[in-house]
Write a structure and sequence with these properties.
The structure is a homodimer.
Chain A lengths: L4 E6 L8 H13 L3 E7 L1 H10 L1 H6 E5 L10 H7 L4 H10 L5 E4 L3 H12 L9 E8 L2 E6 L9 H19 L5 E5 L10 H12 L5 E6 L11 E3 L2 H27 L2 H20 L8 E4 L4 E4 L6 H16 L2 H15 L2 H8 L1
Parallel strand pairs in A: 1-2, 1-4, 2-3, 4-11, 6-9, 7-8, 7-9
Antiparallel strand pairs in A: 5-6, 5-10, 10-11
Helix pairs in contact in A: 1-11, 4-6, 5-6, 7-8, 7-12
């Protein structure tokens, strides 16, 4: 059997904490018997619940703190005065090597700020990127950055391409992931300056990476590339627009099935298949955004998710740890740094 | 009866020109009996077809040219040497007052470049914005810019807000349109510098405009605002991501109905309602993006549309002309310019 994996959990983060954190950890433990947990949070709210989850309590260690990051706390303020919060203590556990990764459903801005401060970025990586899966017509793709960096330069985008490629290869299992830069046209002259520069670097360098050039918004869901690279502003808007559109269409479909007697009968027959479809596009299946590029595995769960969604986020962290994604990113970056003449890189991006 | 409206058509623009242009004009004429057309294109390809469309030939005037803008022509090149193309001659007709507006399904970049060059922007408007409708849970919203300007400053975004508001009020008939700026969070500190500046101007000015602050990608389809303002890069990605997601979900739904015998039976019962739904989300119903902010009505049809879609685009142009949208935008801008102290505006945006 493989080495046990220890995950630090911010037990107080998210709309329904600590309940869904504990229930989610319990689910994850059943799926992944090699998991151990460090729970950080208010023992008055956790102890009784934990005692009832027999299997979980055997593999979890509770660390008491009453201090929490609230959903409307400003990241800058949390960085200064949040040293004893459940979120920060969980991150510290990764820093100190007591845990292999951390999962939190709490305040996104605070989590990013503290994780960057405490864990620092991997050598050769300037900024981490919020990364997640997308369902596509061909399976799943990876998209980054989804909001960690509103503004990105060409160097950031090149680093995101490398990180995304390693992630798709190791965690998604794509043998040779195709990488595309999200733009508003496929011609070389399209888009912003950082995008054009990044494309030039990716095209002209001898990176061991299958760069497909620019893609457009409607290419995301066709799965024409495995890795979609973009700045955090555009990525966040695209992610949320896709979520909103999916919701809109399901509302329309639901209305269609209610619009006539025949349609209602049709629904009865098709219900099983439609339920399966709902499962296929269930946002809980895609819960858990990785903050890629840090010295440590850090996964952000959606704040409003339930136990199933939180268990998925824990699973994502476990996969990253098992696949040693961070070490592979470092290796890749080091290899590239060695290959590139420093001057060439400097000249191209500055 | 109202004054007749004359629309100049680039008969050679689009994947299936001139066929769908003529068929579309013929459909539009049946819906809008007050329409007249100037057709610009190759008479060898048009004359016979036109003769067969009796009703259309009575209200259309053919202007022969064999020169066309190809779909891969560069805008800069077309601006220099495209003076006798069907697209350019149609734009010239608006400039000279022979037509009230122009519709083309041709090369988007060339159309924007030539329309801006020939028609110029309205007084007080620095850049035009590609504008279109979006279906939402509450009806329809307007979004701009969808790709005319990859990079926008705060002043552009404020001007787009005014243009979008006037459009929603006059063409969509929203009594007091709500306006939102597309961002990656609703807090004041979120997003790029131009967005924060634009929000400040819209908030602090005494513009007669219901500014709702920042919205996020998933708010587009809920219809929480009537006008979504964004730079052309973000708007284009959001539009295409929404289109791609809608397509993905329809593929998933289709697969669900084929996945079992019961589901196939269900489909038979629900077919009528599902067909209606397809009609409701039919992209042809949303065809026709307005290039708002020019001295003249200019509508871009999707290049791959059919006659029905092209007729919709003509209808959009007719609505803009009937509602005198451009004059109302000018009035609004002039009113604001008068109200604002010039210094104040300068200080805020520079």
């Amino acid at each position: 059997m493989s080495e046990p994996i220890t995950i630090a959990l911010d037990a107080m983060g998210g709309d329904n904490a600590p309940h869904i954190v504990l229930a989610g950890a319990n689910m994850a433990r059943q799926r992944h018997p090699d998991l151990r947990f460090l729970l950080f949070g208010d023992s008055a709210q956790i102890e009784d619940r934990l005692r009832k989850l027999k299997g979980l309590s055997e593999v979890a260690e509770l660390h008491h703190t009453t201090d929490v990051v609230k959903s409307d706390d400003k990241p800058s303020q949390v960085m200064r005065s949040g040293r004893s919060t459940s979120m920060r203590l969980a991150i510290d556990a990764v820093k100190d090597g007591r845990a292999d990764g951390i999962v939190s459903a709490g305040n996104t801005g605070a989590l990013m700020a503290m994780a960057i401060l405490v864990l620092r970025t991997l050598p050769g990586i300037d900024r981490p990127a919020m990364t997640s899966f997308f369902p596509t017509m061909r399976g799943e793709s990876v998209m980054l950055d989804l909001g960690a960096n509103a503004v990105c330069n060409a160097k950031n985008l090149v680093q995101f391409s490398i990180m995304g490629e390693v992630f798709a290869r190791t965690v998604l299992g794509a043998p040779q992931p195709k990488v595309g830069l999200l733009n508003i046209g496929s011609e070389d002259i399209k888009g912003t300056e950082p995008l054009r520069q990044a494309a030039q670097i990716l095209r002209e360098s001898d990176l061991p990476l299958d760069f497909q050039g620019f893609i457009e918004g409607d290419d995301i869901s066709t799965g024409v590339v495995d890795v979609i690279v973009t700045d955090g502003f555009t990525g966040n808007v695209a992610l949320k627009t896709a979520e909103g559109t999916a919701k809109l269409i399901s509302v329309f479909v639901r209305e269609a099935f209610r619009s006539s007697f025949a349609a209602k009968i049709g629904y009865v027959f098709a219900k099983r298949s439609l339920d399966k479809l709902r499962l296929r596009t269930d946002p809980r299946r895609y819960n858990g955004a990785m903050l890629l590029g840090l010295n440590g595995v850090c996964v952000k769960s959606h704040g409003g998710t339930d136990a199933l969604g939180f268990a998925t986020a824990i699973g994502v962290a476990a996969d990253m740890i098992r696949q040693a994604v961070n070490r592979k990113i470092s290796d890749q970056v080091a290899q590239i740094a060695g290959r590139w003449a420093e001057e060439k890189a400097q000249a191209a991006v500055s």
